[in-house]
Amino acid sequence: QVQLAESGGGLVQAGGSLRLSCAASGRTFSTYAMGWFRQAPGKERELVATISRSGTTNYADSVKGRFTISRDNAKNTVYLQMNSLKPEDTAVYYCNTVRGGIPYWGQGTQVTVSS
In sequence order, which residues have a C-beta less than 8 Å from that of residue 62 and are 6 or more positions away? Predict the structure, then answer.
């Protein structure tokens, strides 16, 4: 079983930046891909970014050029650097990984961008 714990959310003005962190339990962190998802009120959860175990990244079109996903395997942590934030980025952000076909989620961290 994997436990994921997100942190770093908050209230920021449009154009500002935040860095989210997700700490994972276990000793096999480096062997799994990680991802960030988000869910805005009344909307479905959507993929924001992923990073493979080798460091290959992918982004949703809506965040390309503004968000950067990275990982520190020594710290069992994945990050999401969010720049040039927009009000439409307001959502609860979740960390995710899949182990043995089972998805694991953190509790989420709220990001609110004011206009």
Answer: 88
Cα angle for residues 43, 97, 72 (degrees, 5° grid): 115
Give the CA angle between residues 75, 91, 105 to the nearest 5°: 45
Strand order in the sheet with 18-24: 4-7, 18-24, 77-82, 67-72
What is the pLDDT tens value at each position of the chain, 115 positions in all? 899 999 999 999 999 999 999 999 988 898 899 999 999 999 999 999 999 999 999 999 999 999 999 999 999 999 999 999 999 999 999 999 999 899 999 999 999 999 9
Direct distance between the N- and C-terminal alpha carbons of the chain, in angstroms, rounded to an integer: 40
